[in-house]
Structure prediction request, 258 residues.
Amino acid sequence: MEKDHIRMAVGLLGNATSLLLYGTPVLTFIKVIKEKSVGQYSCTPYVIALFNCLTYTWYGFPVVSNGWENFLVSTVNGVGIVPECFAICTYIVYAAPKLKQKVAGMVVCVLVLFGVIVAISFFALHDHKSRKFMVGMVGILSSVALYGAPFVAMKVVIQTKSVEFMPFNLSIFAFMNCCVWMTYAALGRDIFLATPNVIGFPLAMAQLIVYCIYRKKTSIQDGNNLDAEEGVQIDGGQPKSGGAVDIKGAEIKIILIN
Prediction:
């Protein structure tokens, strides 16, 4: 009984860290709304996160799990659906037409796939063990994809030597989330909850390491850009050289990968 109480406490802590993680895209897309542009952000991680939330919400339901043993898994992932939908809808509104179509197509595929999973697990499988195995395996695959998605951002950071598009709070919350849910899964001996977090732990750690390496370089680069800006002399609003002045010095080009 004491072990169940400890697991419940860890699960509640996991709900808190997950909400922090899910809340990160909201801050990012508030910035998108203000700027009325998606900039260099990719929507792929948010679409994957939506599928992950849908899958684990279903996994925690009594239809799949035994009773409400994974009730806290359902609650946090059910809540997580809301910010992911907000992020995706905002992206579609402010993205270029081709990206709108691409992201909308991805969302439709995710919803259809989730519907198929629900239908098979509910109608074709008739015991909790089989249902947990099927939905749990899908959850593992989606979680690995979710934790691997930030490698796109890491690639951009390494190429540009700037951490602008890999926010620190997203990396640290992902790391905390893996630690807590890995503990929760270990206490409940649930391999389908443990596996994605065991895999996600080193990936989240890698993000933090990359951030720490390039954060200082970004600060130095910003300082150099500021010096360059202060050194520009303008006559009558025009550059002395008669050409265009790049205040930032060297332009950073980032390829959007979806």
Q: What stands out?
A: The chain has eight helices and two strands. The longest helix spans residues 191-230. The CA atoms of residues 229 and 247 lie 5 Å apart.
